[in-house]
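Batch 3, record 17
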Amino acid sequence: MYSWIWRHLPGNGWVKALISLVLIIAVVYILFQYVFPWAEPLLPFNDVTVDNQ
Amino acid sequence: MRSSTKGRGNVAATTDDTEEHIGTRGHAPRRAPRRMGPVATAISFFGELLITAGVLLGLFVVYSLWWTNVLADREAGKQADKVRDQWAQQSDSGGPVSYDSKDGIGFLHVPTMSGEEILVEKGTTMKVLNDGVAGYYTDPVKATLPTSGKKGNFSLAAHRDGHGAKFHNIHKIRNGDPIVFETKDTWYVYKVFNILPETSKFNVDVLAKVPKGSGKTKAGHYITLTTCTPVYTSKYRYVVWGELVRTEKVDDKRTPPEELQ
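Prediction for the assembled complex:
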């Protein structure tokens, strides 16, 4: 999967490395900004109140 | 890896572009991409999925325990400044004290738990608590605000981990420790009289006007802090009870009561 991506990136090794870095940052950004905030309430780690539910 | 180590004999056997070529500009022989068998491909893909899952979980831990704190502290600081500004303006204009339920109603100081002040806002929904503040209960049992002067229970909740983690060190509170609630013109000094280190999350009786399990039987001015326990999980709830000892007028310099000095 990752070697496939690497092979299909344009440019030489340095350009590929740079593009990979940008891709990684983009993925982490999307995770932190959208995916994790969505997933967090669905996981039972942060319920602090006592209630009837 | 396999084909390149097998040497020249392999080149003739493959029809794809895996043949090794000597670099024309003096490069070492380049390892060319090779084709794997379907089983090897499947295993390699599966392995990459596992690595990805591992990295994803690691990132989620970083998000939960670090990034949410950064965001929450920033938001809490902003809201706390707003409340302080409002107080300053109100005392300048000499107008009546108004409590806007949307903004914070005051600050909680618990020296043995945390060196910083904790803004208190209305409600205990995630939306409120995720801003790095403590919330007073409106549901299932409505909290009695100390500002009302009535006897009852001032019940609060805040995060143990992530989102500011304002009650992270709740286990450091001991009986007899002070809990001070600061409003625009009054310091409410409470003293801890009982701690429940572990209880069910359904135990809403701890929020009652006379909190059940606290050992008190008569109505009084109580404060209840709740959060989750053990740390990093939400299996149980940790409860700390305090009783109002005295109140102090806030002076011009906002000199804190002796418990905070």
